[in-house]
Amino acid sequence: MKTATQRRDVRTGTSVWQSRRLPSIPCRALSRDATADVLVIGMGVSGAMTADALSEAGLRVAMVDRRGAVQGSTPASTALLLYEIDMPLVKLSARIGVDRAQRVWARSRLALDALRARAGYLGIDADIEDRDSLYLEGDQLDTDGLREEADARRRMGLATMFLDRRAVKERYGIERRAAILSFHGMSADPRRLTAGFLTAALHRGARLYAPVEVTSVEPDRSGVSALTSNGRVIRSKAVVFAAGYDLPKGVPEKGHTISSTWVLATRPQPGRLWRDQCLIWEASDPYLYLRVGPAGRIICGGEDEPFADEGTRDAMMDEKIAAIEAKLGRLMPRVDPRAQYAWTGSFGGSRTGTPSIGPVPHMPNCYAVLGYGGNGITFSMMAAQMLRGMITGVGDTDADLFSFNRSF
Hints:
Blueprint: E1 11-14, E2 34-41, H1 45-56, E3 61-64, E4 80-81, H2 89-96, H3 98-122, E5 129-136, H4 143-155, E6 160-163, H5 165-172, E7 179-187, H6 190-203, E8 207-209, E9 214-220, E10 223-228, E11 233-241, E12 256-266, E13 279-282, E14 289-292, E15 298-306, H7 310-315, H8 317-331, E16 339-350, E17 356-359, E18 366-370, H9 376-392, H10 399-402
Parallel strand pairs: 2-3, 2-11, 3-8, 5-13, 11-18
Antiparallel strand pairs: 1-16, 4-7, 5-7, 6-7, 9-10, 10-11, 12-15, 12-16, 13-14, 14-15, 17-18
């Protein structure tokens, strides 16, 4: 069976992260055929965390990327690192049942804790900060809906506070919005975070080949042969598709979507920031999301729409950034909402806000990760943990929740 990843221009513009120097990530040319225990296709944040996990397990890892290390969707991320998934717990419970919904949320929380611990253990310098999360009422959950959501979270043991409109006004200066305050979120520089995980894998002997494009893979019961555009073959016992939103052909896409988002970063304004510099997002569809970035800049995004094509997405840049500036100005009247950086990118999602992680049906020894939504980096760590267990034979107790064969 043959397959290859789709080609997409996954982002346009210059993100605030790209203005900062990235540590050197040595890649080599693929000048001859190669072998490995696992071939990871993609050198973004998901591939980096997966390579770190598999190499730490003692496996020989090779990585390829048609662009290069940290050149795909990762620089477009705003890196609001939450365990709260896009679909509220009450709505997910109605969709897939209370037990499974609680397990999904609990695993997301564990993944974020694991990300914090792993980055700390590796000593990754990526401006990692602990941040609380403020979830504002919107068109998906009004004040009563937020109360119900807070109760649902408390029932499963999550530390949660419901704040009425008066409390939100007093604490954060935000008018006419109730909110849920959650704890132990994070923020980071996504490029440097990814570089840190790639460097850790390199130190354990992982080989990074770029730019190298895999044009087809041929799996069988003993392993996988990956053919590259320069005619070389990489033979491995397993392949992991971690190519982000360049979706692998042949991997089931049912229930997965591609959307576009637009983001701005303001000038530095540390004196105008809100209390605790918490991560802020809305119970709306689409929702506005914002955080504090380097030097006291505000990073704010939203206006998401279904992806049509790169040209259509990019042509809307000025209109969308103006809309985000206006929304930010209304939400935070004290700040200067004008964009100093602006960018747009495409991202994957699913009907339930959950990813698909695991073996690819009908493709022996092939694994993939799809559908990231607003929790992309948190789900990247979840995928790394799960794929390590699956590929090493240990297994994973939550594999059924994210399987490509699941019914929800």
